Amino acid sequence: MELENTINTPTSSWMQHTKVSTITIYKSKKALKPQSDGNCVTILSIDGGGIRGIIPGVILGYLETELQKLDGSDARLAGYFDVIAGTSTGGLVTAMLTAPNENKRPLYAAKDIKDFYLEECPKIFPQSNHLFSCIERVVKSMTGPTYDGKYLHSMLREKLGQTRLHDTLTNVVIPAFDVKLSQPTIFSSYAMKHFSSLDALLSDICISTSAAPTYLPAHKFETKEPDGSTREFNMIDGGMAANNPTLVAMAQVTREISRGNPDFASVGSSDYSPFIVLSLGTGTTKAGGFDAEDVAKWGLLSWLTNANTTPIIDIYTQASGDIADLHLSTIFQTMQCEENYLRIQDDTISGDLGSVDLATKENLKNLVKVGENLLKKPVSRTNLKTGASEPVNRGTNEEALKRLAAALSEERRLRLSNNSKNFSSLNPQRC
């Protein structure tokens, strides 16, 4: 490898203002080396939320830009995280960040996610503007999915082609729900090694995790086992299982640790202190909730559609995401490593911004502004007594992401350095 310039990076907890040390780095486009060559387990998780996926898209664009300032323009998020997890729209983002192009590089740079949503969402969720569009929407939701999903399916198949789960540039975790088995299916790079039937086309996985009830049709497909037998999948949106997949991703890693996976040789099965976790929400409408006296009068139609939302789906996915965040906050705070868990979420969106499918140009541009404003908001953490998210004295989300970028960069260099030393001792002729 070729020596690059030395730069300054933080040496202690990444969420704190710390001393700086000079580290010599190496230029490399290779994938992230195993955790056993480093100090941390790095996880990125992205919630479901339809068109609101543009919000974490803005956040990720900022993080990748900070990594590029440290490590050069070739830096991509897949080269810094052991696991990238995503549900529903978050699953699509996961695929964009980890699916390889013809040069074995990520299909999308993080900065391009925003433009993907601006361009593709109006085609995935075409809007009717005539006088009776609201009535038409209600009728559709009563008789079938609001959208046929044809454009989404064809677009994913075109962009992802024959790429399978095992082809991703880092480990991924994408939940979906099998309606025939009435249980979640976790498409995981780790689980795939033990259950080959999970090595599905990435396009099928993305279609499955985004098949939101009432919005998009369920998805059926098959995979083949090595013995020639087939496994059938009957899938709907992963948000029915885990709209916030952070906990699922951590469980997958913990299982690998307990199985003795050598990639995690330095981590104990009950030790979360080496974990560095970035969990991104897609915004919630807590500020614009419903009054129980009004909800008490709702029938089926009101639960299915209310002010451009589907309350029965939105409330369920929001609640499951909050439970995951509360559980993770409890774990990290109890183990006194709360600085290692960063949850970025906007609980103040309302009106059209809360819709998962109102893909007008105006609404999408406003969602971009939500993401940009979220960067300027203070870092928040869940109060374990009240369950509410409260600002803490850790600066803004933007500042926290800069510290995270420095920690991720340092971890990557450590792994490359240790891996190079180990490799050189075994293969002296390659030095």
SSE layout and pairings?
Elements: E1 2-3, E2 7-10, E3 20-23, E4 26-27, E5 41-46, H1 54-71, E6 83-86, H2 89-98, H3 113-124, H4 133-143, H5 150-160, E7 171-178, E8 183-188, H6 189-192, H7 202-209, E9 219-224, E10 230-236, H8 239-242, H9 246-258, E11 275-280, H10 292-295, H11 300-304, H12 311-334, E12 341-344, H13 361-376, E13 378-382, E14 389-396, H14 397-426
Parallel strand pairs: 5-6, 5-11, 6-7, 11-12
Antiparallel strand pairs: 1-4, 2-3, 7-8, 7-10, 9-10, 13-14
Helix pairs in contact: 1-3, 1-13, 1-14, 2-7, 3-13, 5-7
Give the overall silhouette: globular
Which radius of gyration do the C-alpha atoms yield?
Answer: 22 Å
Structural class: alpha/beta
Counted up, domains total: 1
Encode the helix/strand succession as letters.
EEEEEHEHHHHEEHHEEHHEHHHEHEEH
- Portion in helices: 25-40%
SS field, number of helical segments = 14
Structure overview:
Strands 5, 6, 7, 8, 9, 10, 11 and 12 form an eight-stranded mixed beta sheet that branches. The chain has a two-stranded antiparallel ribbon with strand order 1-4. Strands 2-3 form a two-stranded antiparallel ribbon. α5 packs antiparallel against α7 (202-209). β7 (171-178) and β8 (183-188) form a beta hairpin. The chain is globular, with a radius of gyration of 22 Å. 39% of the residues lie in helices and 17% in strands. The longest helix is centred in the last third of the chain and has 30 residues, at 397-426. With 431 residues, it is α/β, with parallel strands linked by helices. The chain has a single domain (36-62, 82-357), classed as Cytosolic phospholipase A2 catalytic domain, CATH 3.40.1090.10. The chain is built from 14 helices and 14 strands.
